What we know:
This protein is of the alpha/beta class and 258 residues long. It has one domain: Rossmann fold (3-Layer(aba) Sandwich), CATH 3.40.50. Helix content is 34%, strand content 22%. The protein has 8 helices and 8 strands. Strands 3-2-1-4-5-8-6-7 form an 8-stranded mixed β-sheet. Helix 4 (107-120) links the parallel strand 2 and strand 3. Helix 6 crosses helix 8.
Amino acid sequence: xxxxxxxxxxxxxxxxxxxxxxxxxxxxxxxxxxxxxxxxxxxxxxxxxxxxxxxxxxxxxxxxxxxxxxxxxxxxxxxxxxxxxxxxxxxxxxxxxxxxxxxxxxxxxxxxxxxxxxxxxxxxxxxxxxxxxxxxxxxxxxxxxxxxxxxxxxxxxxxxxxxxxxxxxxxxxxxxxxxxxxxxxxxxxxxxxxxxxxxxxxxxxxxxxxxxxxxxxxxxxxxxxxxxxxxxxxxxxxxxxxxxxxxxxxxxxxxxxx
Length: 258
């Protein structure tokens, strides 16, 4: 793990305002030094990384007609990573050849991400910003990525609308979140936070989990349609995650803009 010096702790007063929930952003900023520790508080995201990246790669390659055999199939693509945190997704996207812009409402997360990318020799455009600010620049992207973000925002429909506005015509959006079901309450909230201690208590608010129908409705209002969904299921015997047909807890979605 790369040791970094980071900016002072983010407080509610200096977190970018907008669709971000300031309490949620402050909670993640407080543990920003652990983003790149695979055994720390972000261990679940490190374990999910191969599954999420495979979904992104396969759907982007298929949708845009790219070369699936290339080591850098995303070369020439502009990709926006929203709520990038410490850069756990931004860096592999850059390694796949993409021109990556990554934004986060917490300045401390951006500092951690910048320093880690510099140490890895990666050129990523990290910005302490929210989608509402970036959309005002008129920038558009081939792909917008929203992973484990929508369940933490203050206004879901506004967030989706703003993100979709930055997807160019013919482009796509990749999202991952948690369904609001009794199963997710038991596994993603009670088990993950209170029993297994995978996540700090309070990481998630079950009432803010997003049903696939709610996600699809919000995207349709923003002129995007979901073309594919896949669940992400945990195998406790092998301690790994895999793609599945079970959407009751964690799930991924790919949406297209005509």
